Automatic annotation (TrEMBL):
Family: Belongs to the aldehyde dehydrogenase family.
Keywords: Oxidoreductase
Its EC number(s): 1.2.1.97
Superkingdom of this protein's organism: Bacteria
Name this protein carries in UniProt: 3-sulfolactaldehyde dehydrogenase
Gene3D superfamilies, A to Z: Aldehyde Dehydrogenase, Chain A, domain 1 (3.40.605.10), Aldehyde Dehydrogenase, Chain A, domain 2 (3.40.309.10)
Any GO molecular function: lactaldehyde dehydrogenase (NAD+) activity
Role noted for this protein: Part of the sulfo-TAL (or sulfo-SFT) pathway, a D-sulfoquinovose degradation pathway that produces sulfolactate (SL). Catalyzes the oxidation of 3-sulfolactaldehyde (SLA) to sulfolactate (SL).
EC top class named in words: oxidoreductase
Length: 479
């Protein structure tokens, strides 16, 4: 495998640009240098925004058939280079090669859905004669692009989460500037390459790499940016909201996802789904299973099966076909998780398995008897840690599931439709997965949460709705 460092360029003003300063992109497995990317300055970002103002006009004038063609050609390009994309996702991030391949497949699907939805941006006729005195008026509304969108993306899905912002933006006739995560910027640059090769007009898409402390405020506060689409942590989201000014905001801010397992559930199915849901991408997943509430009558059996399956999880080299879980994104992230777990144990939690760190690797960890006053009980761990809780019944499980300031996805395992619908009605979340873990999503569904989990919805069709505005047209006719 070629490991030479060649220095990547970023896409700005329709050109591939270098910078005097660079950011080193390192493999969290062993901290080896993968490549460098430009460290853009605040002035670079201001220039990019000025260029994107012209990109706004270009994007809005693109006929729908051209948007569709560009999106499909970009998807074709990624599909042809799928192993290259997957290898980079695995190297610069935490995913195993098998997890990375799935992300590439989803990215292709996201862009193809975007192409399909581009033809479905519809309006409606309006019956103006519903109002007395308006009998001689007729009209409609249609949706128009809002202009320039800023996309700020995280490290854990460095390709598909970028596609979830870029695809809908292009489909709806907007220009977009992407600021990818500093830890995993190369996947976003590869996506930009695919769009460049697909013939996307210059200045419609920019991907600018750099330190958020240097370029972040310029992007989020600039008055010509009409929408911010952010995926990341709650604290960062709150900071963006405090600075953004009068513009549209879309935010997916993570969760502390609960799953309920009732006594009539298929335990083997529940165990398999939730082990995967808890430890996928080393637990660095906004949908990851963090809390599992199990009816008391089956708790011991479920816990034993869950620990047995967790201990079978293979941790190691991300590029090995046999590996189930790789390292966390950095040793610093693993140390934070280690600290949270140790705090919980010191306050009375019982460690059932795991709880060990080796550099950036943190072993799949299962706890029970979690005290309510520890960090793990309230916050998103964003690591390979799951807690098991015995509960008396469904009502207790719902009450405990809802007590945190997050509400992205929840799951319930049961064969009883009445209980499933009761959970659906009363769980305070953006999505309920029945007989599946919280870590289930397709790219065409509305995706987002309530409370501290965010604002608005992603998912291609729904993101397009967020990225457009309705314009009313009314004709007054001669009598």
């Amino acid at each position: 495998m070629n490991t030479s460092v060649k220095g990547r360029k970023m896409l700005v003003e329709g050109q591939w640009m270098e910078c005097e300063q660079v950011i080193e992109v390192r493999d969290p497995k062993n901290n080896s240098l993968i490549d460098t990317v430009p460290a853009a300055t605040a002035e670079d970002m201001r220039k990019a925004i000025e260029a994107a103002k012209e990109g706004v006009k270009i994007a809005a004038e693109m006929p729908v058939h051209e948007r569709i063609a560009v999106l499909n050609r970009a998807a074709d390009s990624i599909q042809r280079r799928s192993e290259e994309f997957a290898t980079m996702i695995a190297r610069e991030g935490s995913k195993t090669i098998r997890e990375a391949r799935k992300e590439v497949r989803r990215c292709v699907e996201t862009l193809r859905i975007s192409a399909e939805e581009a033809r479905r941006i519809h309006g409606e006729t309006i019956s103006f004669d519903q109002m007395p005195g308006s009998e001689n008026r007729i009209g409609y509304f249609y949706r128009f692009p809002i202009g320039l969108i800023a996309a700020i993306t995280p490290f854990n899905d460095p390709l598909n989460l970028v596609a979830h912002k870029v695809g809908p933006a292009i489909a709806s006739g907007n220009a977009i500037i992407v600021k990818p995560a500093e830890a995993t910027p190369i996947s976003a640059l590869l996506l930009a390459e695919a769009f460049d090769e697909a013939g996307l007009p210059p200045k419609v898409l920019s991907v600018i790499t750099g330190n958020v402390s240097e370029i972040g405020d310029v992007l989020i506060t600039h008055p010509d940016v009409r929408m911010i689409s952010f995926t990341g942590g709650l604290q960062a989201g709150q900071e963006i909201l405090s600075k953004a000014g009068l513009k549209k905001i879309g935010m997916e801010l993570g969760s502390n996802s609960p799953v309920i397992v009732l006594s009539d559930a298929d335990l083997d199915e529940a165990v398999e789904a939730n082990v995967s849901g808890a430890f996928w991408a080393a637990g660095q997943n906004c949908l990851g299973v963090q809390r599992i509430y199990v009816e008391e009558s089956i708790f011991q059996e479920f816990a034993a099966k869950f620990i047995e399956r967790t201990l079978q999880y293979r941790v190691g080299d991300k590029l090995s076909e046999l590996t189930d879980m790789g390292p966390m994104i950095s040793e610093r992230a693993a140390i934070r998780v280690e600290k949270w777990v140790n705090e919980a144990i010191e306050k009375g939690a019982t460690l059932l398995c795991g709880g060990r760190r080796d550099g950036a690797y943190y072993m799949p960890t299962v706890l029970t008897n979690l005290p309510s006053d520890c960090t793990l009980a309230e916050e998103e761990v964003f690591g390979p840690v799951v807690t098991l809780h015995p509960v008396s019944d469904l009502d207790a499980a719902i009450q405990q599931s809802n007590h945190v300031n997050f509400g992205l996805h929840a799951g319930i395992f049961t064969r009883d439709l009445d209980k499933a619908f009761k959970a659906i009605r009363h769980l305070d979340v953006g999505g309920v997965m029945v007989n599946d873990s919280t870590d289930y999503r397709i790219d065409g569904m509305p995706f987002g949460g309530v409370k501290g989990s965010g604002l608005g919805r992603e998912g291609v069709k729904f993101a397009i709705h967020e990225m457009t505005e309705p314009k009313v047209v009314c004709f007054k006719l001669s009598k």
